[in-house]
Batch of 2 targets.
Target 1
Amino acid sequence: MQPHLFVSVKKIKVCPMCGSTHIHYVAGMITGEKYKCEDCGYEGSLILEMDIEEYKRWMKSRGEKNGVER
Ligand SMILES: [Zn+2]
């Protein structure tokens, strides 16, 4: 097993669909971890992890892209 590198900086989990930070860890599946977003209902192993400064920048850049939501 190749261990992930965990840094001491606090990372927050972010929904890749809606940008919410209300992410719940659901279960360990065969494919690995699974998460669920409380806000949009997204479920999957793909979530974004970033620190608070990155998150602020990311949200800002999202907002500047015409505010298009899918
Ligand atoms: Zn979401």
Note: Helices lie at 52-64.
Target 2
Amino acid sequence: MVLKKPLFFLLHLLAARQIADQSAPEWDYRDTNRWIADYPTCGGAQQSPINLDHYNSVGSLKPALKFRNYAQPLAGRLTLVNNGHTADIMLPETIRGPRPTITGGLLNGIYEAQSVHFHWGSPGGGRGSEHTVNGYRYDVEVHIVHKNMIYGNVQEAMQRPDGLAVLAIMINIADFPQSFYPGLNRVFNTLPRVRAAETNATINSQLSLNHFLGDVDTRNFFAYRGSLTTPPCSEAVTWHVFPRPLLVSRDLVIIHPHNHICILFIFDADCKLLRAPTEKRRVSME
Ligand SMILES: [Zn+2]
């Protein structure tokens, strides 16, 4: 694994409780070089995140992504959890019963939504997305984590190369955004209530997964096979990354939760190393 500065904040693909192996070594962002020692897969050849480059990408006619039950309200109120690494939302079923699912793109099979979490910039330290596009880094990256339905649970899916699918939605801060995303706003406004690790807060609104997608252009994506971005770095993730960002108000992200969440979760400005690809990856672009 090649690690480069500068660094940015926060990643983590799955809530700590999903990785619930009590014997697993502790990890944090202060010394990511230790990750390989404790988790050898973190030095693998298919590690994420990467820079997505139009020049090095292979244009291909993949099927469009299809979303089911993304517009259905999720059952009950969502709980935002500070799990010590990120702000994570475990997703319930929808009020109709089934979970939201995705198919198409680079996926074979049906993947059902499990959780949502965020990657932010650090105060004074820079932007926070994990993936970059043509070397450009966005302010925030939202991950919606899905599990292949043929596997019983996330733990099992993490052991399989086709186990997980993650959608990455980019957000940039704007002074005068043209759109308003009420669902994201409610999530952001809840962040200050989970400043301490192992705390949680209820989001006082009924949300659907479409609230997290906003009006992102889901026809335009990069897709590639990669990994969890934090230990155990399992190479089990099919990524679909939407390069056109949502624009949100500067007040909402910077003044309010942005500073809090980085201070809280990471303790200093240097939060996360971008992991460079070890080789030129063939990435398909729809
Ligand atoms: Zn993530």
Note: The longest strand covers residues 237-249.
